Every structure is written in C-alpha cells, then in structure tokens.
Amino acid sequence: MTRDDALALDAEDPLAALREQFALPDGLIYLDGNSLGVLPRSTAARVQQVVTEEWGQGLIGSWNAAGWMQLPQRVGDKIATLVGAAPGELVVADSTSVNLFKVLSAALQMQQADAPQRRVIVSERSNFPTDLYIAESLARQFGCTLRLVNSPQEIAAALNADTALLMLTQVNYRTGHLHDMADLSAAAHAAGALAVWDLAHSAGALPVQLNADGADFAVGCGYKYLNGGPGAPAFVWVRPTHVSRFRQPLSGWIGHAAPFAFTPGYQPAEGITRYLCGTPSVTATAALECGVDTLLAALPLGGMAALRAKSLALTRLFTSLAETRCAGHGLTLASPRDDARRGSQVCLARDDGAYAIVQALIARGVVGDFRAGDAADGLPDILRFGVTPLYTRFVDVWDAVEHLRQVLVSGEWQQSRFNQRSAVT
Amino acid sequence: MTRDDALALDAEDPLAALREQFALPDGLIYLDGNSLGVLPRSTAARVQQVVTEEWGQGLIGSWNAAGWMQLPQRVGDKIATLVGAAPGELVVADSTSVNLFKVLSAALQMQQADAPQRRVIVSERSNFPTDLYIAESLARQFGCTLRLVNSPQEIAAALNADTALLMLTQVNYRTGHLHDMADLSAAAHAAGALAVWDLAHSAGALPVQLNADGADFAVGCGYKYLNGGPGAPAFVWVRPTHVSRFRQPLSGWIGHAAPFAFTPGYQPAEGITRYLCGTPSVTATAALECGVDTLLAALPLGGMAALRAKSLALTRLFTSLAETRCAGHGLTLASPRDDARRGSQVCLARDDGAYAIVQALIARGVVGDFRAGDAADGLPDILRFGVTPLYTRFVDVWDAVEHLRQVLVSGEWQQSRFNQRSAVT
C-alpha cells in the first residue's frame, strides 16, 4: 500500500464529496472528531441568522415565528433517523450527563415498581467516567450498587437476578470496542434487567438501531460525530412503551404538558417531551442541526451503512499501516481487530511516551488524542485516532501513519516540550 | 408630563449612551427584556469568532488555547460582581431549572443532616412554575411537602419549626413584587430554615447582595436582564460555607476534582466548580459573556445602583402615565406602588381583554407580554411591561402608554385577530 494507492481509494470513494460540507483548516489531519467534530460550512451563516435576525430582530416573537419552541423535537427527529428511532421518540436537550441522569432515574423507578429486589447497575470500569459518576449518584439515591466489569466478555455473565440495569456506552471511548446492542440488550432482558445505552461514540459514526436492537433508554452527544460544536446540546430517547410510565426528576417547565398555562402543579407532557427540562439553548441547537444535516446529506449515497463501510475501510487501513510501517516501536493494537466489534477509531497502546508521541504528532498537524491508562486496572496508556467517514480521507490515514513512523524513528517525541501536560489532553 | 418632558429626561440621562451597545430593531418599543433581553452589538462578531476561529480553526485545542475550560468560571466571576458575590463563588452552567435542582437537592441534604425533622419547603403559589415543579420533584424524593403562600405578607408567618427551605424568586415574575432578601433570609434563618433565591428577574435588573443579605443558595437566568440570548446558560451560586459540604446529584465530569484523570469514582471539585455537570456550551456561554459585559459597562457610570435608579424612574413614569392617561378603561395596577418593593416591571390587571390588548400593542410595535390569571387562586390576567434601564428610554415609556391609551380608546383590541392564541404568549 503506497500513498498513491491511498489517493486512488479517495478518487474512487463515492462519499468523497461529503468532505466539501466542512470548513477544515488547511493542511491539518484531524483524527479527533470523536472528541470534537469539525465545523460544517453551513453553521456560521445559520448561527449568524439566529443571532442577528431571529434573536436580534424577531426577539421574543421568534419563539413562535422562527419555530424555536419546536427545535428540540425538530432536530430530535433528524437524529432519530440516524439511530433507528421514529419521529417523536427523541429530543435534543441539556448535556449527555444531565440526560443520563434523567433516563437512569426513570429506569430505576421502573425497576423499583416492577422488580424492587433488583439493585445492581452493571457497567464497564472503562466506561466514560461521567456515565459512572452519574450512575454512582443515582445508585446512592436508590440504594443500589454499581458493579463494574473489566472487559466486554464479562458483561453477560454479570447479569443476574440482582441486576436492575445494564448501562453501556455502545462504543467504548478508550478502546473503540463496539458492543453488540442487540445481543446485550437481549441478555439484559433475559436476566430481567433494562438496557441503557450511551451513543456518544456511535451516533453519526455507524448504524444504530435503538428500536430493532432492543434498547430501553438512550442518550447521546451532539459535539462528536454529530458535528454540533463545542458543548453542543445532547439528546435523549426512551422506548415508547416506557416513556410515559414514569416522570424523570428534572421536571422543568418545558417538559410540562402545558408550559404556558403557568399552573403551579407539574403535569408531565406525554411522550419524550417530558424529558425536556428548562428553556432550550436556541443558538446551540440550531448549530447542532447544521451538524446533523451533514450526516443526512449522506442518505442519498447510502446513509449510515455507506459511512460505516468507509469508516471500517479507514480503520482497517490505519491498523494495517501502523502494524507494518511502525513495527518495532513498541506500539500494540488496543482497538478490536474484528470489524464487527470496532467503532470508528484506532487505539494504539504503548508502555511509555504515549502522551509525548501524541503531542509530537499534533505539532506536525496530525491531531489525535491521548487517554491515560490506569496501572491498577491494567489499562495501558492509549494513542487514540478517530476517523470520521464524512471528512477523513484515505490519504489522511496514510499521511498520519507516516508522521507517526517519522516521530518514532526520529525520536523527536522525546523532546521535553512534548511532555508538558495541559489541562485538556 | 408631556412627550417633550420625556425626551428631556432622556437628554439629561447619564446612562443614555449605554443603549448604543444594543442592536435594537428600528421603531420597536421593546418592554419584554424580562422575558428575552435584546441583542448586544458585540455578540454577533464574538459568536462568529467562536464558531469560525476557535472551533473551526482551533478545534479540540481551543479547550486550552481559547480558554474554553475556564468559561463557566470566567463569566461566572463577571456575574458575581452584579449580584454581590465574590470571584470563585459563582459559575455559569445548564439551565435555571437544572441549577435549581442542584441547589435544592444540596439544601435538602443539609437539612437532612442538620435538622431532619424539617420537611417543608415554603414558596409562593405565584412563583415561576418551573421553580415549583422542580421543588415538587425534590419534595417527593426527600419526603418533604411544598407549602405555597398566596401573598408576600404571608411568607414570614409560614416559617416555623417544620420549615426546611424558603424558596423564592426575588422578583415575582407575575406581579413584579421585589422581596426583601435580607429580611426574608433572616426570617428563614431565625426559623432554622435555609434561603434559596432565584434571581431570574433581579440579576442585572437591580442591585443584589447575595453575601450581605444572607442568601444560602441562588440560581439565575442568562437570557433576561443579562442579555445572553434565547436559552442562554444560567448560573448558580452557593454560600462558601455550604458549598463543599454536600454533593449536588448531577455529578458530571466537569464538576469532578480532576476531570481529565478519567478515574471511575466521583470526587467532587472543591467549591462552586462541583456545581458544573456536563461539557459547557461554549458558543452560548460566549454569547452570555457579551450580554454580561453590557452591564459591566455601566460600572463607571454608577453600576447597578445607577441602573436601579433609572429603572425606578421608568416604572414610576409608566405607572403614573398609565393611571392618568388610561384612566377609566378598567386597568388596575398589579405591581407594587412602593419603589422598594417593585422590580423592573409594571403590571396592569384587567378583568377581560388583557391578552388581546397585548396583541394589539405588539401589532403597533410595543412589545410587552400577557400572563394568564387563575380564577381559583384569585390571580387576575396581567399585562406585563418590563423596563431595562440599559436600553429603555423615557420616551419609550411615554410612547408605550400613549399606544396603550389609543388601543383602549379605539377599541381596536376587540378585533378577532388579536384574540388568536399562539403557543408562546
């Protein structure tokens, strides 16, 4: 595989034109869309319209005239098409953490009503920490415990008559392991538990089938593969058979059945609207819509299935190039080799220097990120490279691995400037 | 008082130039800044910079390089100067409803630890509904009850040995009644209760002294008098002696002591940072900062005290003109006549037609709003006119009342088109 071969793959890529939707910095190879997606070209003008026209000129009247009141549902319906949900089942709101609080609380109320002896939440020790923190808070409130397993293989065996919930991020943020939503939801149900899924690293990255695969509750992130911008609002979905059974505790006025009746008693709206809480962030939700639209643009070209096929081709190429061209430099593959179990990222482990190598790559214009290991848990330090099939090219992968090879061969990563830690890595 | 007199007041107003900070629609008299503040001239360019430069070019690196990580604290420190709090005591986060959930939960935990027999939350029946809804949810969780009083005069007498919390919006959204924060906080403390304040209609509208006036917890809104834009992030403050005693339940990663250590156990940050939850909305927080800066621009001109003096002059003028020039048309004053008890709005009650009169005024370019009454609770329908001393002129007040007079005299409000209700009123 030569660089020209990679260029040839780009030349014949039927999705190549989708990259034109983005305002990418010149010369940058951005492999961190799993942390913060890139800016769509349409966003700046749309945000400007919201600010100067809808807010500046329309003022309070824009809640009706510009459709602001329906934004959480309208953008939610668009996201629903990407994750196997139906219109009216999903809304945009708050942050992923806040939405996870809502769904975990509702799910625990369900089990309290249906099977009160079930008091264990099962998850992965390497799940994204905010998910574990929110679960820890609710476990305390509901008198439950959190049981963390160390590998995907241990999950099914951990489900038993004590299990209330199985809570997983569909694609593990550290390892890129893609859980089988259908199998694990079925295993949870077979054990009498409910399945709560965080789609942070899967929504917009690969086909998700919430309804078909048996999920009970789901949340997801707006600023990774949905390209909604830094701190974009998140989303929340609840299986229709559950959604109106319980109240979520963040009972703000926008989730009320009649928010503008201004009545003192809380009466939750029917359906997913009850998962809204306070006044929605209009500018941020409008920006998120632009990001979601970049994915909808792929629908005529095969949609999420076509994007997934390209994502797998990109991560296969990255893995194969890294293993051949960077052999002998202490890197080991930490993401799954099996296509069916790999998300849209490649993770490489190294005993030492992973942080500095990532920094040296960034200095060369190749942006991946570093995730610290945990010796106590047997987790290695990780170099993480996310591919985003909407805009990552095969030649980007080729060039990124070549830079990695040069960084390793030259030893330039050992310069002290690459070891200075900053607040966010 | 003639229109020329009003123009003369504007000509000699030392705060008049502050209006230049805003991009107001031509010819509009906007008296709804207590619902959605107007657009500062600086916001569009700043938002564009965040979108195209910081996000578009800086991408993930902007969390450090553009100071995104510190935005909640940086803008929080600015708001602190407006509400009598010290730097480091206040952060921008989430929505008012979500922040109220956090502080009520912490306050109830405090009472559970210190005085578990106290199980009543006292508030006003006409408090903004979302505050009551959130309190209702937490009352259920903590085994408490919500006791709602019908008038400000009943509050002190409602505080007793059962009271856990007094929860009030400092300025009542319906009536414009300004509670005495010092007196009522002292009354709460004398009864052994904690005082929780919502500053939605006071932060940026009048001087607030959270520390000096004995508040225990406070939340506030970014999109009213702080001019942060539709659905802007809100803020949260906790008295320093309380802040690290308890965890708030929305234990997201940004409130963790070391968010980027990615450890599985939640360890809350010290101080107000533990009141953060998920990833902050960068664009929305940057827009809020522009709004807050329009208030900080008043500091050399006397700050909140000078703005308050102008606000009172404006509401006095509105009240006096409405009572003289609109006499005989069935309007009664529903906001306090006493300057010391009036927020930054004038409320007029009418037995019928209030909705249509507001619509007829909007058609003339005078934007106030309507708040429905509740016959069961003896609350009348309200025409609400908010003044914002940063940009409302004396002549705006004169013209608004003249339009109101013409609408009443002509009977034009009785046209059927003014009675068609829309989703948001």
What does this protein look like?
2 copies of one chain form a homodimer. Chain A has 2 domains: 3-30 and 302-412, Alpha-Beta Complex (Aspartate Aminotransferase, domain 1), CATH 3.90.1150; 46-296, Aspartate Aminotransferase, domain 2, CATH 3.40.640. Chain A has 13 helices and 13 strands. In chain A, helix 2 runs antiparallel to helix 10, helix 4 packs parallel to helix 10 (282-296) and helix 11 packs parallel to helix 13 (394-410). In chain A, 36% of the residues lie in helices and 13% in strands. The radius of gyration of chain A is 22 Å and the shape is globular. The relative contact order of chain A is 0.16. The first copy, chain A, has a 7-stranded mixed β-sheet, sandwiched between helices. A 4-stranded antiparallel β-sheet of chain A has the order 9-10-13-12, covered by helices on one side. The longest helix of chain A has 23 residues, at 303-325. Chain A has helices at 3-11, 43-55, 62-65, 71-82, 96-114, 129-142, 155-158, 181-190, 240-243, 282-296, 303-325, 354-363, 394-410; strands at 29-30, 90-93, 120-124, 145-149, 163-169, 194-198, 217-220, 234-238, 332-333, 345-349, 366-367, 369-371, 382-386. The mean pLDDT of chain A is 96. The first copy, chain A, has 425 residues and is of the alpha/beta class. At the A-B interface, helix 2, helix 3, helix 5, helix 6 and helix 10 of A face helix 2, helix 3, helix 5, helix 6 and helix 10 of B.
